[in-house]
Amino acid sequence: LYASLFQICASNHAIVEARKVESHLVTFSPAPPVFLLNRVIETYGKCGCLVDARELFEEMPQRDGGSWNVMITSYTQGGYPEKALSLFSDMNRSGVYASEVTFASVLGSCGATLALCLSRQVHGLIVKYGFVGNVILESSLVDVYGKCQVIKDGQRMFDEIKNPTAVSWNVIVRRYLEMDDGTKAVFMFFKMFQTAVRPFNFTFSNALIACSSIFALKEGKQIHGVAIKMGFEDDEVVS
Length: 239
Prior knowledge:
By secondary structure, this protein is mainly α. It has helices at about 1-10, 15-30, 35-45, 50-60, 65-75, 80-95, 100-115, 115-130, 135-145, 150-160, 165-180, 180-190, 200-215, 215-230. The protein starts with a helix and ends in a 10-residue tail after the last helix.
């Protein structure tokens, strides 16, 4: 019941109610289960009360991997990537193993701060912990290498993904576009159609912008035709 109430508070950003539920919890259960305290931290994070979340995190008599994960994720999603990365370092020093969710949040913060060196270290840990094959983490690595302007490493990482998703393809097209390599962005867009992946509207948009940047009218018309065929002609972004 408590877990459900905290979830409702988080989804509605109801911080006042969340504090009331926490107060009720600690009043009737002096030593609440760790997983419930993790839900409280998560709720405070989603409500934007990161000071309260960190305070509870520090006061916890016991923590598990989930405790570290929700705090790191809260910092990442709350726009505090430096604090997320600092806490990740503390987590490693404490001997706590990161989960796939933790690594995804950390890579997001690495991309926000352009922390290339740390990104490579995280990449090594992902391999060490046996998370190779996780398409979310692999796509995140493509993204962070692209943001850090080492697109060759991003392409190598992309080539290692066994079954790239629509997210994976969107990332590689967008990163080439942001590197002012419109030719490669368009090439990767067309390469995507050799697979059964259905692109996002933003992938179409990025490919069309890339065509504009290199004056590729023929390819732009081809993409226009594909967009119509796939039902994107009424999409505002693509239009």
